[in-house]
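Query structure, 377 tokens:
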């Protein structure tokens, strides 16, 4: 079960988003810890309490998406929700659970209030993505589902490790800016040193490098530069405080060239995979063609045998029509004369058809070439 969560503000927008009519079926399964009995009222309560704090993103939204072909019970969803609540540190916080069904697929949304009403402060949520990823792995193992490669091993999400199909998909879909920022912030939060941050970015397919203007950038597989301070969302001086060994990093141009070489190897591998697939397909087609040719040959032989048998049977049937002795001999002679006349009639008809064909050919050519010539016989 894939778990994706983020902090949010906007009580009304959140409620309207959960109640969109684009879903075939919407079920508000639970409203806990709120006085109101509807989503807008509940989220407005959370907003009102948040006004006593400095918190702008007073809600935490979590989506739970099982594999497309799996049917998950409500109890299994609720068990996963309770586990996520405990690991995130949102125990007994007011929450809302909503189920959506779209095109036969059922998934779930949970929204908690982050505001601790007893102390009037927002609950901190550190390392949420790591916690949710670990729980997601456990849920896949618990239910015996096929785990996505990117969830099983984060290195498989590195574009330099793409298979041919994954590479083609990456070219089609591009990158989501929100996901890019989330990756940078996650790598920054889990890293204490420059080396740790560089390794964390590398797992996601980025190379940490020195920028041309004394800043720090991350280079992706397309050679695009992402300013670290911008995408992490902190000041440049705070970035320099942690990344204090700039001389150990490659300049941007060298990092870009290094990434290009790595991607060239990946493309070469993808090309080899494609060539192998083409050769296998050709071999399959040739084998099918050979089998089809053998089948057709056998069918022709069977047809010829059937026609020979029928010809012999028809000959026997015709011979049986004649009488025996002298009378039979006279019948055969008379039959021969009849067949001769028939052949003459056929020859005359064939001659007429040939002549007609010549006349047709003559009429479709240039008449100047035939002036002065007599009509053909």
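Result returned for the query:
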């Amino acid at each position: 079960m894939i778990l994706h969560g983020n902090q949010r503000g906007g009580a009304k927008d959140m409620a309207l988003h959960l109640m969109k009519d684009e879903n075939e079926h919407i079920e508000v399964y639970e409203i806990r810890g709120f006085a109101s009995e509807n989503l807008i009222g509940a989220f407005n309560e959370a907003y009102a309490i948040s006004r006593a704090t400095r918190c702008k993103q007073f809600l935490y939204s979590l989506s739970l998406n099982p594999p497309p072909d799996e049917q998950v019970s409500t109890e299994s969803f609720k068990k996963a929700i309770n586990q996520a609540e405990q690991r995130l540190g949102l125990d007994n916080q007011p929450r809302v659970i909503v189920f959506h069904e779209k095109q036969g697929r059922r998934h779930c949304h949970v929204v908690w209030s982050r505001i601790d009403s007893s102390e009037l402060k927002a609950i901190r949520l550190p390392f949420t993505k790591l916690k949710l990823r670990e729980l997601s792995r456990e849920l896949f193992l618990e239910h015996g589902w096929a785990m996505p490669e990117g969830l099983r091993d984060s290195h498989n999400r590195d574009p330099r490790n793409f298979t041919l199909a994954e590479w083609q998909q990456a070219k089609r879909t591009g990158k989501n800016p929100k996901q890019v920022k989330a990756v940078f912030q996650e790598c920054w939060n889990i890293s204490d040193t420059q080396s740790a941050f560089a390794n964390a970015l590398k797992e996601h397919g980025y190379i940490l490098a020195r920028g041309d203007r004394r800043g720090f950038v991350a280079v992706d597989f397309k050679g695009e530069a992402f300013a670290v301070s911008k995408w992490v969302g902190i000041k440049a001086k705070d970035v320099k405080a942690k990344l204090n060994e700039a001389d150990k990093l490659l300049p941007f141009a060298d990092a870009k060239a290094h990434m290009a070489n790595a991607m060239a190897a990946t493309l070469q591998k993808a090309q080899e995979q494609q060539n192998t697939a083409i050769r296998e397909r050709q071999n399959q087609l040739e084998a099918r063609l050979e089998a089809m040719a053998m089948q057709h040959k056998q069918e022709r032989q069977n047809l010829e045998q059937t026609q020979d048998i029928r010809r012999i049977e028809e000959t026997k049937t015709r011979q049986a029509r004649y009488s025996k002795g002298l009378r039979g001999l006279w019948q055969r002679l008379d039959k021969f004369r009849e067949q001769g006349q028939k052949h003459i009639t056929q020859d005359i008809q064939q001659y007429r058809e040939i002549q007609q064909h010549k006349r047709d050919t003559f009429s479709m050519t240039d008449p100047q070439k035939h002036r002065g010539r007599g009509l053909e016989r």
